Amino acid sequence: MFNRLALLTILLFSASNLRAQLSAYIINVGQGDAIYIELPSGGNVLIDGGPSGEPIYDFLKAKGVTKIDHVVLTHPHSDHYRGLKKVFAVTDVKNFYDTRAENIDARGDNNLRELANAEPNCVTHFPEVGSDLKWDPQVTIKVLNSCSEPVLSRDNDVINNCSLAIRFYYNGNGLLFMGDAEAAIENAMMRVFKSGLNSSVLKVSHHGSRYSSTEKFLARVQPKYAYISFGVDNVYGHPHIEALQRLRATGAKILYTTGGTQSFTIPAPKRGQSFPVEPIFNGTIVTSEQKFQDMTLTWTPDGHIEAGSNSPAMTQLEEYASPEDAVK
């Protein structure tokens, strides 16, 4: 009898410990973004859905996902929102997080928002900069950029800079998801959040565009691992060599979704473990690529920072300030 109780206790502890870990998947959706996160307490999150329904549907089906607690649209560009239409069609979505950025040349984003409004028991949220998202009692989740006030534009840079940027903090690790925010927003985030940007894992902004991932921003984030989501032979030339060189200069290990869906797990806290705990990574780390070896820097982000300094996103970000900005 005692042995049975001991075995049952071990099994229950093991199952509880497994649930208490945080797992993230940077999904191979081609030229676009989609990140699926399993939270320690059992909830789940989907940040963006990629450019079409099939890749995200195949991923969720393979994992047996039928319900998503929190769906996030970082900004209304089709390589981020189109796949979410399929998500609303095949899963039960409880909460939808959006900006008030309106891409006035697009209709698909409004169609997605209509689907969210029609989803039974789904609540739409427009989180403000500095908001703490209470998605899991074991994880600190903070919004570092958003356009929670209405913005109407056909300018791609304006829409990109409205991206919801979210930082998770669990078991000593920051996880920073940047959407497509560009250099001007990165620069403002440094002034506002300071050490609150430090993150061991970075989902690189804008598919590795030269217009993001500035040297100063990366020095503040100090990523150990950097994930870049993009499609093979995409027409934009992502990732750009300038961004790759800046990322490599930090010493970060770089992982591409073109090698397949990438994932990592942050184990649950354990008594006596070193802190911060080292994440467990699954994926192929890019060490070197011959086609980039002899190329030199061709662009500096300084001009783009100045060009974006008057964007609506910049105004909303810089209006936010408080002594609590420098989080863990």
Structure overview:
With 328 residues, the protein is of the alpha/beta class. The protein has a single domain, classed as Ribonuclease Z/Hydroxyacylglutathione hydrolase-like (Metallo-beta-lactamase, Chain A, 4-Layer Sandwich). 30% of the residues lie in helices and 21% in strands. The protein contains 10 helices and 19 strands. The strands form 4 sheets. An 8-stranded mixed sheet has the order 9-7-5-3-2-1-17-18, with no helix packed on it. A 7-stranded mixed sheet has the order 10-12-13-14-15-16-19. Strand 1 and strand 2 form a beta hairpin. Helix 3 packs parallel to helix 4 and helix 6 runs parallel beside helix 10. The longest helix is centred in the first third of the chain and has 18 residues.
Gist of the model:
It is built from 10 helices and 19 strands. The protein is of the alpha/beta class and 328 residues long.
Low-confidence parts: 6-16, 287-299, 323-328
Rg over CA atoms, rounded to whole Å, is 20 Å
* Number of separate structural domains: 1
Q: Output the helix-strand order.
A: HEEEHEEHEEEHEEEHEEHEHEHEEEEHH
CATH topology name, in short, is: Metallo-beta-lactamase, Chain A
Class of secondary structure makeup: alpha/beta
Q: Identify the CATH homologous superfamily.
A: Ribonuclease Z/Hydroxyacylglutathione hydrolase-like
Largest sheet: spatial strand order: 9-7-5-3-2-1-17-18
The CATH architecture comes to 4-Layer Sandwich
Tell me which oligomeric state these chains represent.
Answer: single chain
Give the total of beta strands.
19
